[in-house]
Amino acid sequence: MIRNPDKPPFPFSPPPRFIWPNGKRCAVMLCFDVDGETTALSEDPELARRLTTMSQCEYGPRVGVPRILGLLEHLGLPATFFIPSYIIEHHPLMTRAIAAAGHEIGAHGHLHEKLHTLSPEEEEHILQKSLSIIESITGKRPTGFRAPWFEINPGTTELLRKEGLSYNASLMSDDVPFIHGNGVVEIPGNWMLEDWEQFAFNADPAWGVIPEDCDKVYQLWWQEFIAMRDFGCCFVLTLHPWLSGRPSRVRLLERLFNDIISTGDAWFCRGEELAAWVRAHPEHRREIDFDA
Ligand SMILES: [Zn+2]
Fold first, then answer.
1. Burial class of 22 by CB neighbour count within 10 A (0 to 12, 13 to 18, 19+)
2. Ligand 1 midpoint to CA 213 (Å)
3. Distance 246 CA to ligand 1 centre (A)
4. Most exposed: 22, 43, 49, 119, by fewest CB within 10 Å?
């Protein structure tokens, strides 16, 4: 193929995939999945006796969340916290602190159950239970859902609609939100914008990989943000406080968030605001197809 030297790099100035509020070029949804002790308990209830493994998980609700809340308050940023209702029950003060700071709390199972292991009846029961526990402690029924491990079943989005939820944040088939046939908004994420792959490690049971260098992770996420801004996408970052609440990683987040703020182009939003915008403006979405 002969390259035309006069052509700008592809695509130099593509039309945005979605038109965002106030002339912003991209949306940014910061998600904190506070799995805490359910990280271990959902794998094997016997791990409750493995106190060091449990204590590493507990670091998230005990130390990571307050530190992250401090950073978000310092920078004036909103976020969405997806929390298994077992964690809500066992850390009510943490839950109320998140809600009092104005952040959104979304459903994330009860014990971080893998949905594919559940019958439809069990899945429905767990969703209903998790919603009522969150409502009983925060006074607000969640409008959003993130499946544990991002994995949903064929019937999950219909279950969400039946329970009155506005959005699901679990699929990976796009880089801007879309609307399911039943009206539930989908806010897609992806594994690259996740901290588990970068930072998770436990010796036994063996989880994760050798923890990554924060500068390298900054580059990974920053480059994706800058390109997503060029394409008018929705940057959905998923972080676990037991991993990203460690000191050097909070500094990484501070640097990343400050640099995103400095562009002046990003709409920082909670999931519920994002879903409301998408539902109100479906015509603002630009499809990618073979004719475009
Ligand atoms: Zn999770």
1. exposed
2. 23
3. 18
4. 22
Centroid of ligand 1 to alpha carbon of 1 (angstroms): 45
- What does DSSP assign to residue 194? B
Annotated domain spans of the chain: 21-284
Q: Right CATH number for 21-284 from 3.20.20.70, 3.20.20.370, 3.40.50.1820, 2.40.50.140?
A: 3.20.20.370
Distance 189 CA to ligand 1 centre (A): 13
pLDDT of residue 11 exceeding 90, the answer is no
Tokens for 61, please give them.
């609700």
Mean pLDDT in residue range 11-26: 87
Ligand 1 centre and the CA of 106: distance in Å?
11
Please choose, from the candidates 184, 177, 239, the residue with its C-alpha nearest in 3D space to the C-alpha of residue 214.
Answer: 239
Structure tokens at 111: 């014990």
Please give the Cα distance from 170 to 148 (Å, whole number): 8
* pLDDT given at position 273: 98
Alpha-carbon span 98 to 81, nearest angstrom = 8
Please state, in angstroms and rounded to a whole number, the distance separating the CA atoms of residues 34 and 156: 21
pLDDT in tens, 142-196: 999 999 999 999 999 999 999 999 999 999 999 999 999 999 999 999 999 999 9
The answer to whether the CB of 105 falls within 8 A of the CB of 134 is yes
Residue 84 CA to ligand 1 center (angstroms) comes to 8
Q: Which residue has the tokens 């949903």?
A: 152
- Count, residues in the chain: 292
168 has which bridge partners? 145, 186
CA of 139 to the centre of ligand 1 (A): 22
Judged by DSSP in three states, 32 sits in strand
Count CA within 13 A, CB hemisphere, residue 18.
28
Residue among 74, 67, 63 nearest 36 (CA) = 63
